[in-house]
Design goal:
single chain; alpha+beta; Rieske Iron-sulfur Protein; 2 domains; seven-stranded mixed sheet; four-stranded antiparallel sheet; 11 strands; elongated; disordered C terminus
Length: 172
């Protein structure tokens, strides 16, 4: 039977004692969990969408003549932002900001090791992905997105944040 306050067991459909208070407590906890999960999903979606900054396209002068296994310094997105273009031994192009994610020192391409090196604290990055190989940096180096155009021209078309997937060179 139901108590006068409405806290007694609800009977009728099953023989298990189920109180209104228990039902509403469970409903409240479930609603709170769904609300927290929705906020978390919304925040992660915002982070995923904001990974790539768009800048005006810029042709990288001399990229067509860059030999496999070598690198070329350039500036992107402005004349005060140093960047580095790497051509892998297989002929693929990769570009990154030329600042270490640890303390902002200028990185260089170590041809013998095939990686980006930071001379300040001996950090190193993998040249195809920008991920940290060793040293003090805790996050990958920021990539610059590339696009291949007619005549083998290589263009810088955007800048990302280290740790996201590297976008391969695309034809235009």
């Amino acid at each position: 039977m139901n108590s006068p306050k409405g806290d007694g067991p609800i009977t009728g459909l099953t023989n298990s004692p189920f109180t209104r208070r228990g039902f509403f407590s469970g409903l409240l906890l479930t609603s709170a969990g769904l609300l927290l999960a929705a906020e978390d999903l919304s925040a992660s979606k915002l982070v995923q969408q904001d990974y790539r900054a768009v800048y005006p396209p810029l042709r990288i002068e001399g990229a067509e003549g860059l030999m496999p296994g070598s690198a070329l310094n350039f500036h992107y997105p402005s004349r005060t932002d140093p960047a580095i273009l790497i051509r892998s031994p297989e002929g693929e192009y990769y570009a990154y900001v030329q600042k270490c994610s640890h303390m902002g020192c200028s990185v260089y391409f170590d041809r013998a090791r095939g990686c980006l090196e930071c001379p300040c604290h001996r950090g190193a990055y993998e040249s195809r992905t920008g991920y940290v190989l060793h040293g003090p940096p805790t996050r990958p180096i920021d990539p610059i997105y590339l696009q291949m155009r007619a005549g083998g021209e290589v263009w810088a078309v955007g800048k990302g944040t280290g740790g996201n997937e590297h976008i391969a060179v695309a034809d235009s």
